[in-house]
Design a protein that fits this description.
mainly alpha, four-stranded mixed sheet, 17 helices, globular, binds zinc ion
Length: 417
């Protein structure tokens, strides 16, 4: 068999593997919520809060869709015309210099076109009082993001083009392994090395709430060393909590804004949801799916690299030469467009399972519902978003669905696990 046939076989195995992991680790279905419950939940929310959430999201729509469209046009121009290849070609010198500097130039150019729209978005966040940042702080965040992207991008670009150069027939295998390894490594390293660049984390102050949260984790048999508080208030008024990292780097992070604006019982409810993620190994599932997806993407790029018409459009002789970065970026963006809604559908089921876990662990659907209402109001969520937008872009069930799930729990209905 030729390397190409092996690549096709490997791709099929990886895709089947990912489908199996998704099938085994993501709930096949979630308990459907009743329309009557959703309506009652919506009616229980303050009318002004619902209107404000809807108005906020309507205001965000133009910059949001414009950014999606513009970045797509930019990567298609850079990747499906010789523009990207010309930019890399203009960087002289050693191939590694061309790969890293030329590659980063193309990647940043694609990102730069949406920067004005990101600023427009920030203007809206301020108008609605959600952002607490100064323009200086906002710009520092943007620059920090570029710096992190440059470091990660340089590693990926150098690794990819070095392998493609030195293992011409089989680079797809090494590239796939490397992409998977990098995904797993990032999952460990991100919370420890990257998150502190953007926020300060301090252990939660000793007191009844901290004791309660640690006791909750113990009752749930989830090993938690500490609960950290992030200084999110320097940037936003939004409230949140999350769990990130794997094994020894796993931590539960609570926004300081959540501690300020929610009752302790509601904070407990949020953390119970996060414990659900830890308990069900959702970070592991996400990492494994991400690694399989990254490996598949590398092999797909290798196979597409034999399509001469595509190479001609981009003005390159092969995907293994540094001038191909524009084409790779365009392919990755198109793959992301297709994969995004599927990813979100899986995410919504995982989130619904974590909600069910929180309800079972706290056995307090009233507080859970109050917490969802608070989250929605404070974060200016649209509690009952347009259906198509929800299906395409939402990573979590809608607020009214989550509140309806609490109502079903209160009646004694339980989701099958
Ligand atoms: Zn969650």
């Amino acid at each position: 068999m030729t390397p190409r046939v092996w690549a096709a076989v490997a791709l099929a195995v990886l895709v089947l593997g990912a489908a199996t992991v998704a099938l085994l680790r993501v709930p096949r279905r979630r308990l459907p919520t009743l329309a009557a419950d959703r309506r009652a939940a919506l009616d229980s929310l303050p009318v002004e809060a619902v209107a404000r959430g809807k108005a906020f999201h309507a205001a965000l729509r133009p910059p949001g869709y414009a950014a999606r469209a513009l970045s797509l046009i930019a990567v298609l121009l850079l990747g499906l015309t010789p523009l990207g290849a010309r930019i890399v070609g203009a960087v002289g010198g050693h191939w590694a210099v061309r790969a890293v500097l030329g590659g980063l130039a193309v990647v940043f150019l694609a990102g730069l076109v949406t920067l004005p729209l990101a600023a427009w978005r920030e203007v809206i966040l301020r108008r609605y009082g959600l952002s607490t940042q100064s323009w200086g702080g906002w710009l520092v965040d943007v620059l920090k993001g570029y710096a992190v992207g440059a470091v990660l991008g340089a590693v990926a670009l150098l690794g990819f083009y070095a392998i493609a150069r030195y293992a011409p027939g089989w680079w797809w295998a090494w590239g796939a392994l490397g992409a998977a390894a990098l995904t797993v490594l990032l999952s460990f390293v991100f919370p420890v090395l990257v998150e502190p660049i953007f926020n300060k984390f301090t252990p939660m102050a000793p007191g009844p709430l901290r004791d309660e949260l640690l006791a909750l984790a113990e009752r749930d048999r989830v090993p938690v060393k500490d609960v950290l508080v992030a200084d999110a208030s320097r940037r936003t008024r939004a409230v949140n909590a999350y769990v990130s990292g794997l094994g020894p780097t796993r931590r539960i992070v609570v926004y300081d804004t959540l501690l300020e604006r929610a009752d302790p019982a509601e904070v407990t409810s949020v953390v119970a949801h996060e414990l659900g993620h830890a308990r069900d190994g959702d970070v592991v599932t996400g990492t494994v799916l991400g690694a399989l997806g990254a490996a598949s993407a590398v092999i797909l790029v290798y196979l597409l690299g034999h399509w001469t018409a595509l190479l001609d459009l981009a003005g390159v002789t092969g995907v293994g030469e540094p001038r191909s970065i524009g084409l790779l970026l365009a392919l990755a963006t198109l793959a992301g467009l297709v994969a995004g809604p599927a990813q979100n559908a899986l995410s919504r089921r995982i989130e619904a399972r974590a909600d069910a876990h929180a309800l079972a662990l706290t056995d307090d659907p009233t507080t859970f519902e109050a917490m969802e209402a608070r989250l929605s109001t404070v974060n200016l969520a649209d509690p009952d978003p347009p259906r198509l937008e929800h299906l395409l872009f939402a990573s979590h069930p809608a607020t009214v669905e989550r509140m309806a799930a609490a109502r079903a729990y209160a009646r004694g209905e339980r989701a099958a696990r």
